[in-house]
């Protein structure tokens, strides 16, 4: 059977967009740190080309032989790498805000968590196929069945949320975990318990970190005026946070989107990237793009992403092999949750979590990892009844 070439072309289109904006958006960073003019563009172009090659090469492999080795290889190697990162010397690890998230290699830095997400999805798909089915079970039996997975996930929480101080990635993995369990055959009760459990862990992680509490306060400070105006004064007075930190980044993000209006200021003509929005080429890339090509441009990007997700979920639905079905589903969920969390964050619907936009944010690890995931889905598409 043939590979789904449309998925490949859609991904190449998104990578091309990211390369174009890697030349436009980081202009202030280039000037401030005195980088070479094409510093970000050259690196994003190189990573994009490697990512496109990886997708093409992986799509040509036999999924019945290669998928298990790639999936478990990523899962095992990355979980070891995340565990050993804190034992590595400072010269080999990039430290950001007190968190060690990148292993420094000659010429580039690698974020193991990005590749781990792909391996984790494969591990769940492979294991769920062997352990979970559609047969009716008591709630107690289902909990016993899922207990080993919960233990594995708690280890993942420790490695990512505690050691790397990256709660956003844990939320993406938790949502993917419980959704894949539901599609694997777990009951709606287990799904509900999983959502509540994830919310509980997230709450503990937030209240135990002063940095995260400040982020929540900053987010609430942005929206509390609108929300509290709808409530009685007695309730509003209780919920109002008087000392909420000024949400500069979110304000500038919203202003950048508003300034772009429907058709944008023009490619390269944005002004909020000039020192107002830090990391505009990474966490706030959608705001930077919105200012330059407007809401219309963002809608086009969303249309490309929705078409991509439709075709990934179509492969999942039409795969007779349950491992292939769940794996394709998981990759689609990773892309969906990552995009939603970032877009909700920059528009102040939810707190900012520092999640990269799939294919669009600057960064080698995120692009290479998602390209590997898509390459594996293309591999699977040869076995789907499309």
Automatic annotation (TrEMBL):
<feature type="transmembrane region" description="Helical">
    <location>
        <begin position="145"/>
        <end position="161"/>
    </location>
</feature>
<dbReference type="GO" id="GO:0009252">
    <property type="term" value="P:peptidoglycan biosynthetic process"/>
</dbReference>
<keyword id="KW-0812">Transmembrane</keyword>
<dbReference type="InterPro" id="IPR001182">
    <property type="entry name" value="FtsW/RodA"/>
</dbReference>
<keyword id="KW-0808">Transferase</keyword>
<keyword id="KW-0133">Cell shape</keyword>
<dbReference type="GO" id="GO:0008360">
    <property type="term" value="P:regulation of cell shape"/>
</dbReference>
<comment type="similarity">
    <text>Belongs to the SEDS family. FtsW subfamily.</text>
</comment>
<keyword id="KW-0131">Cell cycle</keyword>
<feature type="transmembrane region" description="Helical">
    <location>
        <begin position="293"/>
        <end position="313"/>
    </location>
</feature>
<feature type="transmembrane region" description="Helical">
    <location>
        <begin position="167"/>
        <end position="183"/>
    </location>
</feature>
<keyword id="KW-0132">Cell division</keyword>
<dbReference type="GO" id="GO:0005886">
    <property type="term" value="C:plasma membrane"/>
</dbReference>
<dbReference type="GO" id="GO:0051301">
    <property type="term" value="P:cell division"/>
</dbReference>
<keyword id="KW-0472">Membrane</keyword>
<feature type="transmembrane region" description="Helical">
    <location>
        <begin position="108"/>
        <end position="125"/>
    </location>
</feature>
<dbReference type="GO" id="GO:0032153">
    <property type="term" value="C:cell division site"/>
</dbReference>
<feature type="transmembrane region" description="Helical">
    <location>
        <begin position="190"/>
        <end position="209"/>
    </location>
</feature>
<dbReference type="Pfam" id="PF01098">
    <property type="entry name" value="FTSW_RODA_SPOVE"/>
</dbReference>
<feature type="transmembrane region" description="Helical">
    <location>
        <begin position="325"/>
        <end position="347"/>
    </location>
</feature>
<dbReference type="GO" id="GO:0008955">
    <property type="term" value="F:peptidoglycan glycosyltransferase activity"/>
</dbReference>
<dbReference type="GO" id="GO:0015648">
    <property type="term" value="F:lipid-linked peptidoglycan transporter activity"/>
</dbReference>
<keyword id="KW-1133">Transmembrane helix</keyword>
<keyword id="KW-0573">Peptidoglycan synthesis</keyword>
<feature type="transmembrane region" description="Helical">
    <location>
        <begin position="359"/>
        <end position="380"/>
    </location>
</feature>
<keyword id="KW-0328">Glycosyltransferase</keyword>
<feature type="transmembrane region" description="Helical">
    <location>
        <begin position="41"/>
        <end position="59"/>
    </location>
</feature>
<protein>
    <recommendedName>
        <fullName>Probable peptidoglycan glycosyltransferase FtsW</fullName>
        <ecNumber>2.4.99.28</ecNumber>
    </recommendedName>
</protein>
<feature type="transmembrane region" description="Helical">
    <location>
        <begin position="66"/>
        <end position="88"/>
    </location>
</feature>
<feature type="transmembrane region" description="Helical">
    <location>
        <begin position="7"/>
        <end position="35"/>
    </location>
</feature>
